[in-house]
């Protein structure tokens, strides 16, 4: 397979999964806004930092500071084409990549991506409003899952499919850490310190729900939601498909089916070891956001090794 085609397949699957999880990230804040009493201060600005777009947001909206409104942040995360990681940018990028490699994937995939693109164009501004936001997010998530289902059901299990799977696994691991980061980044400020634990647990319940993980959490953990248990489940559970551990194990199972590149294996093993050795109780007592940043750096290093090994030929 040409390195250019492999690169496009890898990034196509990453952009589709990024679009879905960007919508889910906005869902964390939207669910919390619905659940929290009006007396509790809710800050949207930290969400921009979790996707690594803080500098771009500050440059575009210099007067907002930390008091950015939900409409400004949600529009920036979902629709702003100047934000390279926005939902619209991800879908646009996936669509442009697919336009160039349409002969390698089923026609139904192109139709599904085009439907998503047209839906965002027609309903994006409506989806920013609180009244219709969850409906918009659900529709985007369903559309992205439809693309993933079509790829899984209708694509031959050749080397191209392995690059699709690899892109999905790495992007999901990265976005799960970013959604965890959002849950740990001080979105909620209670007026009374005695209420902090209760609101913190509500915050982590929203994180689980946004990742479609709440029911599986209850099935595996069988305890009330807490920071420690949520972190252990989302980081280290080996059976839930959106957990970081599951995604990295999938990547490990894919690499032996591809041409050997020792640098790629080493990069992946480092981040796997970091996750396996993490202590959720210790992370819960400190600030989990710092650890999430560390994982993201290691995932970036792994991606760089992957690009050097397979896409630069």
UniProtKB/TrEMBL annotation:
Coiled coil: none
Sequence intervals crossing the membrane: none
Boundaries of every DUF403 domain copy: 1-311
Name of the protein: Alpha-E superfamily protein
